[in-house]
Amino acid sequence: MGTKKPRPCRSLTPEFKAEIVELCGRDDRPVGQVAKDFDLTETAVRLWVSQAEVDGGERYGLTGSEREELAALRRENRRLREDVEVLKRAPAHFASMSK
């Protein structure tokens, strides 16, 4: 049996993704065929189509901007928790310095 070569990591523009989603919506070809024609994974294309449906209000879920906001809030929350941990340790540190 042959082994599959790993797919190279590519950075695709939002415009390209939008064109692929549009092709999937208006074309009579199945998503799998569109993905194959553009050398993309079917899973990725299906995720793009699904996200476009959410962003368009056709499907329930987090929109792209909501996902970005959630990620930013999680980063900020993590940073604030780290700050709190440092501040909790500060009194013990200063107490040991004064001895």
Account of the protein in words:
This protein has 99 residues and is mainly α. It has one domain. The protein has helices at residues 14-26, 31-37, 42-55, 64-97. Helix 1 packs across helix 3 and helix 2 (31-37) crosses helix 3 (42-55). The longest helix is centred in the last third of the chain and has 34 residues, at 64-97. The chain is elongated and about 80 Å long.
Helix/strand layout:
Elements: H1 14-26, H2 31-37, H3 42-55, H4 64-97
Helix pairs in contact: 1-3, 2-3
Structure at a glance:
The chain has 99 residues and is mostly helical. It has helices spanning 14-26, 31-37, 42-55, 64-97.
Question: Which features does this protein show?
Answer:
99 residues; mainly alpha; 0% strand; elongated
Poorly predicted runs are none
Please count the helical segments: 4
Anisotropy-based shape: elongated
Strand residue content = under 5%
Helix percentage range: 55-70%
Give the CA-CA distance, first to last residue.
71 Å
Mean pLDDT: 88
SSE order in H/E notation?
Answer: HHHH
Strand tally, please? 0
Count of domains: 1
Q: Structural class, from secondary structure content?
A: mainly alpha
The radius of gyration is: 23 Å
Largest sheet: none
